[in-house]
Write a structure and sequence with these properties.
The complex is a heterodimer. Chain A is an all-beta fold. Chain A contains no helices and 9 strands. In chain B, strand 9 and strand 10 form a beta hairpin. Classes of the chains: A mainly beta, B mainly beta.
């Protein structure tokens, strides 16, 4: 039970912003939201994580809804190298939850 | 360079043979994990270890075994009891369970 819901696939044009949604309606107060991405035949790569506030780093931004039941990973300008499967994961540091990967969203970027 | 290394990248074995996959990290991480990925699917947790000389079963531990004798190393043995061993195997490590994980490049095991 991955406890998050993501669309199976999304398409974007190169150099346009991409918003990848994730629903986590049963999230508890201490669960962090983590995002990883996986390129073909490679191990997943950490992207970003957050708890309540929106977060930014060099790779992406994470917007978390006020009720924390959903979040959106934002790639500000998609490149062809961003084509990957993006996984949204709930993680409770206090309970020592493992990374539990669901099916993720396959992002396709068109030139 | 710090990182996590899996070897070999590709591995072929005959059915009925045990095979051991290597995972080494020099990140000084306490926690290490093994995942299995089948084509078009997400990752499933096989085993994890929070500290040296300790490990726990994940969701699909049957047919697999691990050891954690050193902090840097967490080898996975795929035994003949694993009914469908052909898959992509990924090792990861993190400072502690629940924090940002770093993954190796994976080992693709094919059993014929």
């Amino acid at each position: 039970d991955a406890k998050t819901t993501q669309p199976n696939s999304m398409e974007s044009n190169e150099e346009e912003p991409v918003h990848l949604p994730c629903n986590h309606s049963t999230i508890s107060g201490t669960d962090y939201i983590h995002w990883y991405r996986q390129l073909p035949s490679q191990g997943p790569e950490y992207v970003i994580h957050g708890l309540t506030s929106n977060v930014n780093n060099r790779m992406a931004s994470l917007a978390i809804a006020e009720d924390r039941k959903s979040s959106t990973l934002i790639l500000h300008r998609a490149t062809l190298r961003d084509a990957a499967v993006y996984y949204c994961i709930r993680m409770n540091n206090n309970a020592g939850n493992m990374l539990t990967f669901g099916g993720g969203t396959r992002l396709m970027v068109k030139p | 360079d710090g990182g996590i290394t899996q070897s070999p990248k590709y591995l072929f074995r005959k059915e009925g043979q045990n095979v051991t996959l290597s995972c080494e990290q020099n990140l000084n991480h306490d926690a290490m994990y093994w995942y299995r990925q089948d084509p078009g699917q997400g990752l499933r947790l096989i085993y994890y270890s929070q500290i040296v000389n300790d490990f726990q079963k994940g969701d699909i531990a049957e047919g697999y075994s691990v050891s954690r004798e050193k902090k840097e190393s967490f080898p996975l043995t795929v035994t003949s009891a694993q009914k469908n061993p052909t898959a992509f195997y990924l090792c990861a490590s993190s400072i502690k369970v629940g924090t940002e994980a770093f993954f190796g490049q994976g080992t693709r095991l094919t059993v014929v």
